[in-house]
Amino acid sequence: PEGSVSTVVKNPLAWPLRLLAIVLSGALLLTGVVLGVSPRLWRIANAHDQVPVELPEFQPLSQRSLVYDVAGNVIAVFERENQQPITLDQVPDEVVAALLAVEDNEFWFHKGVNVRGFARALLSNFASDAPTQGASTITQQVVKNEYLAGLPRDARYKFLQAHYAVMLEKKMSKGQILERYLNTVYFGNNAYGLQAAAEVYFGKNAGELTMIEGAFLAGLVRSPNTYDPIQNLESSHRRFAQVVNRLIDVELVSVQQGAQLIEEWQLPSKAHTIPSLTSIKQTYFTIALREYLLTNSNLLGQTEQERANLLYRGGLAIHTTLDSTMQAQAEAARN
């Protein structure tokens, strides 16, 4: 108002207090940063004293145990997983080529992780109605099955999978990795590995598979239940068509051959077993034998878990005193 006098009073302590507050805030921030970073710096400084991470050895493959009579005839089969180990040289080259075309076409060239293939798979799957290419290499799939079972599928999981795949490629040869994959990958219907899958879906050994049969089996790997031809024939046929188109892309079959395969090739319609094992049934003798080995003796281990693991997964050849001919004659006389 007119005639009034405006007076500004300055506090001589305001600026030093403000400066002190800034200094304290900076000190607190710096302390927090140091506390957060120091453990990492300490690990880096002492990294030369740490033992590098080593991948453990693979667990032994599960194998069925067979029981024989005195004449060498199989009278019982004990197994949990249908997994019949084979060597890579037992698989026809054309079957290996078909499997790699579907699952990991650059397997022989990458170092465990195929960045270019990963990006290509993402683009291909994004552009199609259903996924047609897998993003993981065969090495990464082996790592997943051997080392990462039970871990949550988060970002850390993918990092570990890639990291361990690179480590595994430095530890083992390509042939060893591929052989492990062929012996452990799941094809559905309790078939673990190529030999078991050849038996279940085609009633033959892996060495007798054709290229198209091998490609069909490779197509099951991504989702064995969804693409199971015995339970889901329509979805299995769609997947087979994708597989055939993949074979055309890599020039393993011609366009004309591919069209004919999609139209005419018969997918498996029932589960098979190797003929020599189809007629084996449980008998009083084999049931008593199983009870003896699992509960009434320690021949196979000190605990029942140890005994069960060895009996059902250890690939034992168990020779017994049973004379099947005399047994049959005794049963006939009884009847």
Which short descriptors sum up this protein?
14 helices, 5 strands
The proportion of residues in beta strands is under 5%
Structural class: mainly alpha
Rounded to an integer, what's the Rg over CA atoms?
32 Å
Largest sheet: 3 strands, mixed
Could you give the order of the helices and strands?
Answer: HEEEHHHHHEHHHHHHHEH
Number of helices: 14
Spatial ordering of strands, largest sheet = 2-1-5
Task: Indicate the overall shape.
Answer: flat
Strand segment count? 5
Low-confidence stretches: 47-51
Distance between the termini: 130 Å
Mean pLDDT: 82
How much helix, percentage-wise, in residues? Answer: 40-55%
Provide structural commentary.
The protein is mainly alpha-helical. It has helices at 14-45, 93-103, 115-127, 138-147, 155-171, 174-184, 194-202, 211-220, 233-249, 255-264, 275-278, 284-294, 304-313, 324-334, and strands at residues 65-68, 74-78, 82-83, 191-192, 317-319. It has a three-stranded mixed β-sheet. A hairpin with a 5-residue loop joins strand 1 (65-68) and strand 2 (74-78). Helix 4 packs across helix 5 and helix 8 (211-220) packs across helix 9 (233-249). The longest helix has 32 residues, at 14-45.
